């Protein structure tokens, strides 16, 4: 048997995985009866449904009638360049302050574009930081540490 | 009147901001109302509830106006709801009639918007009365209907869409169980015991994942730089656009109310209808003014009427409205029939603002068209860092915790994987919002019926809703409709 529709096959596997996760850990909680449902009732029923659907999707992907469909390559570098600075922003904002964090976020993420240039990125960063200071700090008065804790407020 | 006058200038300002931002993102391809509303949700923290909702609503219907500009001038849909406008709008532009096409789109949208708002105001009171007849069984069945509707809307495999809804429902259950106080799937992480943040899911799946996908495709954009000459349609144009606008408005209004419906479905429907019955159907695809008027009126009518189920029943009919539920809960407003009684200022204020917003949009879109065309030339490399910046600031504003940034990034990764595996994310978000509501109504129904499942079909209202859901399933499975549906999505 050949997996014709790779997309569907792996999607099915993913759903089975999630279903197993939710119904498996659901067994830790009280199940209850239909009239008095425990916290586990609804998630376990849903989790089992999800496993069932996942199996259907995966089997359908191996059917002779299934379309040939490959999973496109993951571009890990783009993922890392976009999500990495977001995580860093969350971790560092309270120590480094808004302005440096924004600079880091814009500089690193801009690198993900195939048209990256330092000059344009810096210009973009300046404009965006000014805009953010105006909109969020000045106009909306949200509370942010602006500069690193050891320099000042 | 209507209490909206309590701070009228400020509310008009929020309305203007919303409409302008909506037009902006409508014009820019690759940035939709879902991502934008998710991004700006946290900002509305700082605003009063009414102001925040007015702004978010403005973004949604504003995007319907802006999307047509890109479709006509660049042959690229600024929004999915403008996909069909490309076909005839761009052909009109190539014949030097871009201005006429833009005016037609704006006038059609404005007319349809007004009708949609009137319907919203007219249906709100009677529908809330119906809503008060609803018991938990009816609410549960209504949500089932809504989700089936969302599946019909999904363009890919329906089984996958149902699975995505289930996954969303499960995600919505994470956190403390309201009935027993047991903390579910939190694994002793204190931040998770309040549940997964709605903002994190929406931003990750619709904001970050979209950015990564867009960056992968090395797009290059050709802006149609013909001069937008005459803006005014001739007498003959007016004569030809009236009937399509009326039909588009009716169809759009209906599809907007239906669960799972929304602006995109409406514009597809209106275009195919017009192509079948219009007497100038031979001209379609070659620059027929009807091909612009019908879908543009339909998508804007649907954008307004999709607020009806949200405001009267508290059930979001599509993913954008699911975000509005999120916005309301941020301000401690439980969406549902009680909003009209307990918070009439908010209810009527929002509706009145929508009319002002539509008026502003005509002004924003016709005389100022040049500004938006210029914006089209801004390359994506300047655009996406600002999306990330807004998302990060938004996440920080929600909680000041680094945990939420991690969650958002994780959902960004998840959204990316979903895209690669051909799974639509909109049903997931709908399920996520409805998860807790659905569980609670399910439990309450069976508690009242002492565990009898037959209660769902023995109550007439509930039975009717479930039958409607079943009819939708059957309709989609019918071979003739199935092939037509695939055809319709192929045009995308």
Task: Name some characteristics of this structure.
heterodimer, A: mainly alpha, 65% helix, 0% strand, B: 492 residues, mainly alpha, two-stranded antiparallel ribbon, 22 helices, 73% helix, 1% strand
Helix content of chain A: 55-70%
Count of strand segments of chain A: 0
Question: Radius of gyration of chain A in whole Å, from Cα?
Answer: 24 Å
Q: Quick one: biggest sheet of chain B?
A: 2 strands, antiparallel
Shape designation of chain B: globular
Strand order of the largest sheet of chain B: 1-2
Oligomeric state of shown chains: heterodimer
Mean pLDDT of chain B equals: 81
CA-CA gap between termini of chain B: 44 Å
Beta fraction of chain A: under 5%
Query: What is the H/E string of chain B?
Result: HHHHHHHEEHHHHHHHHHHHHHHH
Q: Helix proportion of residues of chain B, in percent?
A: over 70%
Could you list the spans of chain A in which at least 5 consecutive residues all have pLDDT below 50? Answer: none
Low-confidence stretches of chain B: 1-5
Secondary structure elements and pairings:
The complex is a heterodimer of chains A (153) and B (492).
Chain A: H1 6-26, H2 41-62, H3 76-96, H4 98-110, H5 118-139
Helix pairs in contact in A: 1-2, 3-4, 4-5
Chain B: H1 8-27, H2 33-40, H3 49-74, H4 83-94, H5 98-133, H6 136-153, H7 158-173, E1 175-176, E2 183-184, H8 198-216, H9 235-257, H10 263-277, H11 290-305, H12 307-313, H13 319-330, H14 338-342, H15 344-365, H16 369-375, H17 380-399, H18 402-420, H19 426-448, H20 455-458, H21 460-477, H22 479-490
Antiparallel strand pairs in B: 1-2
Can you summarize this structure?
The complex is a heterodimer of chains A (about 150) and B (about 500). Chain A has about 150 residues and is mainly alpha-helical.
Structure description:
In chain A, helix 1 (6-26) packs antiparallel against helix 2 and helix 3 (76-96) packs antiparallel against helix 4. With 153 residues, chain A is mostly helical. Chain A has helices at 6-26, 41-62, 76-96, 98-110, 118-139. The mean pLDDT of chain A is 85. Chain B has 492 residues and is an all-alpha fold. Chain B is 73% helix and 1% strand. Chain B has a two-stranded antiparallel sheet. In chain B, a hairpin with a 6-residue loop joins strand 1 and strand 2 (183-184). In chain B, helix 3 (49-74) packs antiparallel against helix 13 (319-330), helix 8 (198-216) runs antiparallel to helix 17 and helix 17 crosses helix 18 (402-420). The chains are: A mainly alpha (153), B mainly alpha (492). Chains A and B meet through helix 1, helix 2, helix 3, helix 4 and helix 5 of A and helix 7, helix 8, helix 17, helix 18 and helix 19 of B.
